[in-house]
Write a structure and sequence with these properties.
The protein has 15 helices and 8 strands. The chain has 522 residues and is mostly helical. It starts with a helix and ends in a 9-residue tail after the last strand. The relative contact order is 0.04. About 4% of the residues have low confidence. Belongs to the RNase Y family. This is Ribonuclease Y.
Amino acid sequence: MSSIAIAIVVSIVVTAVLSLLISSASYKRKLKKKQEEATDKSDLILKEAEIAAENLKKDRILEAKEKILKMRSEFEDEANKKKSLIISNEQKIKQREQTLSKEIENLKRKEGELDDIRTDLAAQLEHTKKRKEELDKFNQQKIQVLESISKLTAEEAREQLVAALKDEAQTRASSFIKDIMEQAKLSATKEARKIVVETIQRTATEHAIENCVSIFNIESDDIKGKVIGREGRNIRALEAATGVEIIVDDTPEAIIISGFDPVRREIARLSLHRLVQDGRIHPARIEEIVTKTTKNIEDEIVEIGERTVIDLGIHGLHPELVKMVGRMRFRSSYGQNLLQHSREVANLCAIMASELGLNVKQAKRAGLLHDIGKVWHEELEKPHAIVGMELAVKYKEHPVVCNAIGAHHDEIEMTNILSPIVQACDAISGARPGARREVMEQYIKRLKELEELGLSFDGVEKCYAIQAGRELRVIVDAEKASDERASQLSFDISQKIERDMQYPGQVKVTVIREMRSVSYAK
């Protein structure tokens, strides 16, 4: 290599080294400068942080002082209030003590007054005892004088007095009994009517037989074995599902269904009919058929109600009332079918209202619904007339119709002319011979016995059984019986009827005493 090249290389190397040294010195100066700036900035931040911390400390101290002052003020206010309350209570206590002291002084004064009164009473009692002794002596002397004058002892005079007052006491007793009976009737009429209506089927054998038993006819007695089932399981299942009694005895080609609820009897009869037709009789099938029949009978009840209101020309009746009208088909009253009776009353009311120029539609409506309370499913301790009126009010019937329903047995006061018409038509339908399903011979015999019982009493001139035997009208001789005797007679006859006769419902005994004076002008 030439010397020039070497020199150039050395020059380049020296230049590079110098350049590095210069740049390194420059970098160190810049780095030192940055370190100084960073140190100054950190010192500034620390000073600012110290100043902020000092300010925050002062603020917290001020807030704490304010809170302490506020708490001290609240405490002082509360203490002042309690102090005022204590002072007020102390004043009240002092006033109460003063009042009690005055009351104690008054009691002491009254106690002294009572001691004086006791002393006076003791003196008066002693004086009264002396006066009583003097009066006893005087009465004894007076009795002796009277005995000497009347030549009677006190016991004899007492007996004569008792004999003289006997008739008057009997008259007063009769009047007293009459008042008691009237009061008892007022309080017992509502419950008695319900009991008579609901229990007549249990007390009269002929009515119970006709109204509580249904006959299911079969083609062959072989079916009875299928109905009974193995060890009686089929008949037990049928009775449990329908709630009636199934009687399978030696009656040829017949099964007896017994129960007080006619709807249940009808369900049992229809279920038996379907089971016998189907031929499959076992507990599961029985329950299935009874369930279907129950639904069908409910539909039939609604259909009967709808057909009835359509036949009578009654419109706008609530569906629940229509359903109740249908249930009347399976209800009886004293042996008379309730739906047939209600239809008859509705037609009679319509005829009467037409003749009198009244509202025929309302009359027919009231006649049909007058016994609706008898088919209400709930057992209420109210007369059926009141229950029916409440149902009519509930289902928005006209007030005239509601009053006619509630008043047809005089349970409430009649407020319109339609009410007595419904009452009269109800009596016409129920009172005519044969309507209540009595055998004619028994019916006539019972009325004759009723009249003979009335004629057996002294002073009775004539006796008539009317209203299908529900009323006995007795006419007495005015010369042989007084007004008091007539009142006593009605009570005695009613008691004898209760003891000696059997009858459905109740018998009203009316005693009539009529005084007539006759003169002739010649």
